[in-house]
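To whoever is on call:

I kicked off a structure prediction for a single chain this morning and the downstream step that reads the tokens threw a length-mismatch warning. I double-checked the sequence; it's 120 residues and nothing unusual in it as far as I can see. Pasting both halves so you can look.
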Amino acid sequence: MSKTIHDLVFFDEATPEYSEAATATEKCVRGQPLQRTWHHFTSNDEKFFAGLWEAEPGCWKVSYTENEFCQILHGRSILRDVDGNEHSLTAGDNFTIPAGFEGEWEVLETTKKIYVIYQP
């Protein structure tokens, strides 16, 4: 089926599916930060997703089964792998996280990002 201009999703014009929840206790390393999601798009095959995510300061374990592109909009975070290697994240950073990545996501200052996920 052919798509039209009306099928495009403009984040600042669309009404997203909003959710917020405290990080699951079993994943928390420090604190129990609130995470918010403004989900804008899911493909028909439910393997591709896009939206906005925000989290308050804290640290939790991550284990990615999906491939994710991120663009940090504001805040400061640290992404750390299981070996302790880390990378600081700040506004303007663009990066991908491959499926299979495990480690910790630490938010130092409330961080907001655009996410684009492919779940094989």
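Update from on-call: the warning came from a stale cache, not from the record. Cleared it. Sanity check on the structure: Residues 17-118 form a domain with the Jelly Rolls fold (CATH 2.60.120.10).
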